Sequence to fold (158 residues):
Amino acid sequence: MTEDEGLKALLGGDANAAARAEAALWEMWHRSGDREIDALLREGVAVMERRDFGGAEAIFARVIARAPTFAEGWNKRATVRYVAENYEGSIADCEGTLTRNPHHFGALSGAGLCYMALGRHREAAAMFRRALAVHPRLTGARHNLAVALGEAVRGNGH
Fold:
């Protein structure tokens, strides 16, 4: 499956095909084409899973420095920054991811979560809408869009 085929399957009517496509896309996105970079990315994920967020961020910064066009390096640093509550830094890295891979539904959703955490609900809603345009079955993004829209209607949306 190519990335284009996977993205098309996300939009199709077959939920099982969409689930397989999502898994295949994540697998593709985690391959940089350089074994050393891929090993460094895996190391960063392991460090993040041990909740050493500073250590993981430093590893992902090395991935970005060595492979600046590899979107997943940016996305993983965005993730660790989100978990560490550095929402502005995470948004910047989500944008870095999206510059390199505009269909990265994980980065779109992640940016939405950051905007929600910052109380910027209109911007959050826009990111969740973009994520759902790529991957309509993202139930978390659908739920978060509803929450963001509700907050924006209540006047909490910046």
Observations:
- Residues 1-30 form one domain.
- The chain has a mean pLDDT of 96.
